[in-house]
């Protein structure tokens, strides 16, 4: 009987439950489903009323199942819906480090967002709208964070809708309406999270932090107790040297204060690799992946003990995959000197069963775990072959993403100005679509994005006609997706409470019925004890009334 609670089919925008088709999501589904559950519970209690406690237990299971429907609504409320008609600039985003996760075949907006909820790394779901309201033609899931930095870019394109995880929006994209006061608060930026070898000295810096006037104080703080770590300041106010690091994960907090004593903070993570982690980051063979894109990346060649460039296909990378040569060297070398990493015979690659899979692992169809780098590598490692089953579809959908026609000019000219990751000082020009003009800035020499030009004339000529209407991230761009989720939750709770009240009432009736039954059995066992009490005689003793 419990099977009907989980037997769903959303391929046509509906759920098949208890022999009926229901709306796939929303208030209508909650109301109809829980009403049906209430009525069926009443019928079942009536049929089981002579069986007592087992019936109560069974209905309590059903009540719990009804409340589990709230999971989808709670998930949906965590996302912000973007303005219509913007699409991810896939090539630019993947070049900057965005990760394509999957493209589940779904037909409803909410189901696409729910699929993103189920994937630990997913924070962006965007979809091509269908012909009917709330229906979609396709669903794409992405991770827009590369080592604690937001790297996704959008451009205008008719027919697309996007949802972004609210926490990611608040941390990386939140744009306050233009204030009336003169001085805005600063924005702390500690750069990418770092991955290093034990004993390596790490330089933390906040030179990418911004303020409309000036930042007067940079304060670094190590979160947690790590007695072995040594912290030293440098001649630069934004820098901190950290040395004598042991394997583990370290967190550092950067707080910046401007000249008006306004502050902002951010967290940077430093992962110091264990020998086993080093194998995955520095010994794993180069993996192009199944997709057929062309993205410049770097990997550490354990045989030559050098970081070498290669063209990455765009999906299902392993951990030996870096955006820059500097990032590769920082991870696999110590203080500029190659760490002796000789090629070794790899351990036998096999699935691991018996414990839950982490977010860094692929879950096989049999619930066993596999390192994600081995998914879609051309060789099945899961005993059921599930690690290779969806690869062909992934290749087709990623190609379809790259083939979406977009205006490269809009993608480049609407990027937020980025000074890069290095500390040089090169004069460049960037385009501000809100002011429709180009302005000078100091470029650090590496990293950043494509919104940088050699001269003001070249910048204005290339970006001519681009306005703030073409900018995807702006005040009001994303809105909390709570349209009818709260109403649906209220209806579900009220009906759930009604079911519980029904259980208590029927439980009381059940107990009373059983007591009455026991009394009747006693009467049948002693039919003469109160015979005279139950008969009234008339004057004629031979004719009882």
From TrEMBL:
<keyword id="KW-0472">Membrane</keyword>
<dbReference type="InterPro" id="IPR020901">
    <property type="entry name" value="Prtase_inh_Kunz-CS"/>
</dbReference>
<feature type="disulfide bond">
    <location>
        <begin position="357"/>
        <end position="369"/>
    </location>
</feature>
<dbReference type="GO" id="GO:0004867">
    <property type="term" value="F:serine-type endopeptidase inhibitor activity"/>
</dbReference>
<dbReference type="Pfam" id="PF00057">
    <property type="entry name" value="Ldl_recept_a"/>
</dbReference>
<feature type="domain" description="BPTI/Kunitz inhibitor">
    <location>
        <begin position="282"/>
        <end position="332"/>
    </location>
</feature>
<dbReference type="GO" id="GO:0060429">
    <property type="term" value="P:epithelium development"/>
</dbReference>
<keyword id="KW-0812">Transmembrane</keyword>
<feature type="domain" description="BPTI/Kunitz inhibitor">
    <location>
        <begin position="413"/>
        <end position="463"/>
    </location>
</feature>
<feature type="disulfide bond">
    <location>
        <begin position="364"/>
        <end position="382"/>
    </location>
</feature>
<dbReference type="Pfam" id="PF22352">
    <property type="entry name" value="K319L-like_PKD"/>
</dbReference>
<dbReference type="InterPro" id="IPR013783">
    <property type="entry name" value="Ig-like_fold"/>
</dbReference>
<dbReference type="InterPro" id="IPR002223">
    <property type="entry name" value="Kunitz_BPTI"/>
</dbReference>
<dbReference type="InterPro" id="IPR023415">
    <property type="entry name" value="LDLR_class-A_CS"/>
</dbReference>
<dbReference type="Pfam" id="PF00014">
    <property type="entry name" value="Kunitz_BPTI"/>
</dbReference>
<keyword id="KW-0732">Signal</keyword>
<dbReference type="Pfam" id="PF07502">
    <property type="entry name" value="MANEC"/>
</dbReference>
<keyword id="KW-1015">Disulfide bond</keyword>
<dbReference type="InterPro" id="IPR002172">
    <property type="entry name" value="LDrepeatLR_classA_rpt"/>
</dbReference>
<protein>
    <recommendedName>
        <fullName>Serine peptidase inhibitor, Kunitz type 1 a</fullName>
    </recommendedName>
</protein>
<dbReference type="GO" id="GO:0008544">
    <property type="term" value="P:epidermis development"/>
</dbReference>
<feature type="transmembrane region" description="Helical">
    <location>
        <begin position="490"/>
        <end position="511"/>
    </location>
</feature>
<dbReference type="GO" id="GO:0005886">
    <property type="term" value="C:plasma membrane"/>
</dbReference>
<feature type="disulfide bond">
    <location>
        <begin position="376"/>
        <end position="391"/>
    </location>
</feature>
<feature type="domain" description="MANSC">
    <location>
        <begin position="82"/>
        <end position="163"/>
    </location>
</feature>
<dbReference type="InterPro" id="IPR036055">
    <property type="entry name" value="LDL_receptor-like_sf"/>
</dbReference>
<dbReference type="InterPro" id="IPR035986">
    <property type="entry name" value="PKD_dom_sf"/>
</dbReference>
<dbReference type="GO" id="GO:0030198">
    <property type="term" value="P:extracellular matrix organization"/>
</dbReference>
<keyword id="KW-0325">Glycoprotein</keyword>
<dbReference type="InterPro" id="IPR036880">
    <property type="entry name" value="Kunitz_BPTI_sf"/>
</dbReference>
<dbReference type="InterPro" id="IPR011106">
    <property type="entry name" value="MANSC_N"/>
</dbReference>
<keyword id="KW-1133">Transmembrane helix</keyword>
<dbReference type="InterPro" id="IPR013980">
    <property type="entry name" value="MANSC_dom"/>
</dbReference>
